[in-house]
Amino acid sequence: MNPANSSLFNCIVNKGAIEKTDALNLYTKIWKSINENASERTFEQLGEAISTINSKISKFDQKIVEIEYELPEAEGTYLAFVSCTESSIDKLQTFWTQAEVELFRLMIRKFMAQDECCSSIIQCMNLAPEIKVQTITKAKVEEAIRKWINLGYFYEMDEKLYFGPRLIAEFSTSLLTQFKDQVDICDICKAIVFWGPRCGSCEEVFHKICIQKYLDRIQSCPTCKGAFGLTEQSD
After folding, report:
1. pLDDT tens per residue, range 79-123
2. Residues with Cβ < 8 Å from 15, sequence gap 6 or more?
3. CA contacts within 13 A on the Cβ side of 93
4. Which residues have CB under 8 Å from 65's CB, separation 6+?
5. Which of 157, 130, 155, 152 has the alpha carbon at shortest distance from 141?
6. Where do the structural domains in the chain lie, given as residue ranges?
7. DSSP state for residue 140 in the 8-state scheme
8. Domain 89-179: CATH architecture, name and number where available
């Protein structure tokens, strides 16, 4: 792996997830630090770099994936660093303490029980007494949450926590398996969807990018075939 790609990889790993345009600007900055006469990088060159990186890290069951993140005010295309070994949260025990893994699991369960699929840091800190595998203080809980925000697992907005792009990219299979009666599935791409436009006729929810592309071709709901009258974000 050349020095520029190595630096890009380390930056994405440290952030967990990064918006694609920010990644491109970062990649250009890296190249200019190596050669001040280097030209601006393009999205095509960024894509080639990611492909090269993935070819090197695949033997470690790791990958950088592209994900369309649709949380209002934070939506965009992100690059997320994920483990490909399996989708179980249990695999995190390799890197985190037992208490952190249990906290992570409890937070996901709490989020999935909420209509808005979110929670506050205070509410998550109050989960400390429910962790039985190890004693953990509220201060340590907050420290773990801050770490996960920085790693792209959660996104903080307006004093609330939401699933971050890395968590969605890495644990969608687990969420679909464990919460199949609580999650929405985009009827176009068949992937999990948390925030997106709902059909005004049947209330089906879709990824914004999926329904936009669909409606460019067919002016009706792909599920009920009725008029797609609303574009409001679902909570």
Report:
1. 999 987 755 565 565 678 888 989 999 999 999 988 778 899 899
2. 150, 151, 152
3. 8
4. 79, 80, 82, 169
5. 130
6. 3-83, 89-179, 185-234
7. H
8. Orthogonal Bundle (1.10)
Could you give the 3-state DSSP secondary structure of residue 152? coil
User: Residue 152, Cα to own-chain centre: how many angstroms?
Assistant: 7
**CATH code reported for the domain at 3-83:** 3.90.1150.220
Amino acid found at 89: I
The model scores a pTM over 0.90 = no
Cβ–Cβ under 8 Å, residues 111 and 89? no
Q: Residue 195 class from Cβ within 10 Å (0-12 exposed, 13-18 middle, 19+ buried)?
A: buried
Instruction: Look at the chain and count its residues.
Output: 235
Q: Say which residues have a Cβ less than 8 Å from residue 175's Cβ, sequence separation at least 6.
A: 108, 112, 183, 192
- CA dist 108 and 97 (Å) reads 17
Give bridge partners of residue 64 from the DSSP assignment: 81
Looking at the DSSP bridge assignments, the partners of residue 83 are: 62
**Which one-letter amino acid corresponds to residue 77?**
T
H-helix or E-strand containing 72?
Answer: none
Q: What are the residue ranges of helices labelled H in the chain?
A: 3-15, 20-34, 43-57, 98-112, 121-125, 138-150, 165-178, 208-217
Domain 185-234 has CATH 3.30.40.10: yes
